[in-house]
């Protein structure tokens, strides 16, 4: 489906919408993303290929142009079709951000009209757009998540001085315990995945395949790094970071609960923040959290401030807003059962399930 071009339409004056398929269209799209202050790394077309190559999902990438052919807006969508969870479209699954980027309400509405038309033709139950607050859209929305962000100084030492004494002590504890941190690339993926897959099992969440992270590292060699904390050569905490403009984000971070007493996760975050300052980033994005949850408070102690996220929904035939998340009571039994499964089994079957969990 991602290779089928949508013909130009002129249902709205001066706005043409096309579903991109060619490399030159992707190049024009990416140039537009680089120019837009509200765009994120996940709006770049490389993520489209990561998702298609790893998960096999069709993608629908809509680009709006004016009468002169200049790009005025974009909307990336991924189509998920599962016998368990149904058919739906998301911008963008697996990540915190996505949604529509448009220079006017007219352009936005033209893009959304195309997406809704295709959603109906595909028999999708809903369409989900992941926005940061400020998008004026008359669709139902959820505001249950916030992105936790920390402004960074140019020197990590200055950041460290501003931390509470208890936090500084927790960061240094890892070093006193003999833990070491390595920041690298694909050579650390096995260490990262051993920690990540175990943590996902302990949370009762199906894990992504290792190939997902390998594809991200391959597609973004300059923007991505892996950080791993070792205790006597054993990986005990790890994270994968993604840079875009002046922001470094850590979408995936885990620690091994068996070593919680020596707080390897604190050394991990301290080391990644150090790396962010060294590389000249000015904002560190801890990722999304449910308000007042344990992870929310964990990120808050570092000085991170919440930025409201708004997820907007088109819903077929007045259906309720979907709840495909661990907080849904319908999944409680499955989550508790998953926690008890052997780790090799969860790493085998997890990727077959997680590809349908947005």
Question: Key features?
Answer:
358 residues, 11 helices
Gist of the model:
With 358 residues, the protein is of the alpha+beta class.
What does this structure look like?
- There is one protein chain.
- This protein is an alpha+beta fold and 358 residues long.
- It has helices at 23-35, 46-55, 105-122, 156-161, 165-176, 189-203, 210-219, 264-278, 294-300, 332-339, 343-354; strands at 16-19, 59-65, 71-82, 86-91, 101-102, 126-132, 141-142, 145-151, 180-184, 224-231, 234-244, 247-255, 283-290, 305-315.
- Strands 1, 2, 3, 4, 5, 6, 7, 8, 9, 10, 11, 12, 13 and 14 form a 14-stranded mixed beta sheet that branches.
- Strand 10 and strand 11 (234-244) form a beta hairpin.
- Helix 2 (46-55) packs antiparallel against helix 7 (210-219) and helix 5 packs across helix 8.
- The radius of gyration is 21 Å and the shape is globular.
- The two termini are 19 Å apart.
